[in-house]
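Structure ticket #2291
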Amino acid sequence: MEHALAALSGTGLSGTERLDTIAVLSGHVRMIAQQAAAARHPDAQFSAGITAALTGHADRFPALAATMTAAATESGHDQAFEFGLARLLDGLHTLIRGRTPSKHKGRAPS
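Resolution: structure written out below.
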């Protein structure tokens, strides 16, 4: 926790926001680790379970059926950790960038 808080110093985040940042990132890591411990390929098993449940019911859940069909033909399975972490960090970057004064604000690019 000490290292994480030190890394967030000077970001413009309040103390509560820095603690919440650690909680959100830790929660994401913990959730993915728990899924991985329960299944060798959690995303694939999740997809297989949803697909099996949809059999004969696609008309009731057309958006889910279409999404599962599209996902079955796409690459990038089992990347929930990387995808989620990147989205969390993107959001934090945007928040922090809005809080910290930039040397380049208001200047034309050179």
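Closing remark: The first helix runs from residue 2 to 8.
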